Amino acid sequence: MDDHHGRHYSGHNSYAAGPMDGMTVKVSLVSLIKHHLRDWLWIGVMIALELIMYFIIPPFHRFVNEPMMEDLRYPRKPETVPTWSVGVVAVVLPFLIFVVLFIKNRSIRDFHSAFLGLATAIVITALFTDSIKNLVGMPRPDFFHRCFPDGKAEYTADLERRVICHPGDERAFRDAYKSFPSGHVSWAFAGLGYLSLYFAGKLSLFDRRGYTSRVFWVLLPVLAAGLIGITRVNDYQHRWVDIIAAALLGLFIAYVCYRQLYPSIYAREWAGYPYEYEPQGIFSHGLHGPRAVPMMSSHRPNGHITPLDVGGAAADLETGRH
């Protein structure tokens, strides 16, 4: 049966006790979106701020003079990983994985939580990255060829010997002062780092059962993000400090966003279950509960505590786990 919030209840006693009073809750996508409308609206606001930060606000032009040019004469190279492909790898790929798992498990709540966390991580990372880029205004290693594309250097006649750039490509020159931190890398570690955390939870990586094959799947997205970072150094777009700072920024934001929607990956049997709540009206916070993790069953003989079996398809809809 359905209620006015779009929730469906099944009749058998799938929880031992608690706010659900013995009923399994199947939440509709409409109810989830209504409950998180404030979050989706804030994502829209942050996207607008990011577009302003990227396209309208110019970066700070840090002081560059003739002696400094010795460290800024690296050749210009085509990008090994184009900007558009980072969006595919860091956003589209995780989203498609969430879709595949939704088709398999039929958990609309898990799908919505996963995508909401990913979208939040990506948008916050983009906004933070471009804000820092514009404020720092660090020249890229190939700055010389962006400033003097014809190879003819010009400097002021005073003692400072500042550069007098005559760029041929205004867009490339605008980007010349955006070395720190790397946008490619922060995006990659935000999206793929989030995917690694998602895998770690779903595969119960730290359940102390010793299945080491899971480690490969959890670390594979991080490896891909790291390789993207290496290409940015090899293409002379960034220095190692730009890469390391961007990786730490992306991973930190990914972790914070993941934990808004999922328990710790060290939660053993609870890891990978989206937090429980009852969707409320638009703009409400809902009930995050005393039950932020699935209800506990009795203790196993080995001392482990496990979530109750909520039974069949209803369990998949509620938790996204088998």
TrEMBL record:
Domain Phosphatidic acid phosphatase type 2/haloperoxidase, residue spans: 116-258
Annotated coiled-coil segments of the chain: none
GO cellular component terms, semicolon-separated: membrane
Transmembrane regions: 40-61, 81-103, 115-132, 185-203, 215-234, 240-258
Entry's localization field: Membrane
Gene Ontology MF terms: phosphatidate phosphatase activity
Keyword Transmembrane: yes
Assigned protein family: Belongs to the PA-phosphatase related phosphoesterase family.
Protein name: Phosphatidic acid phosphatase type 2/haloperoxidase domain-containing protein
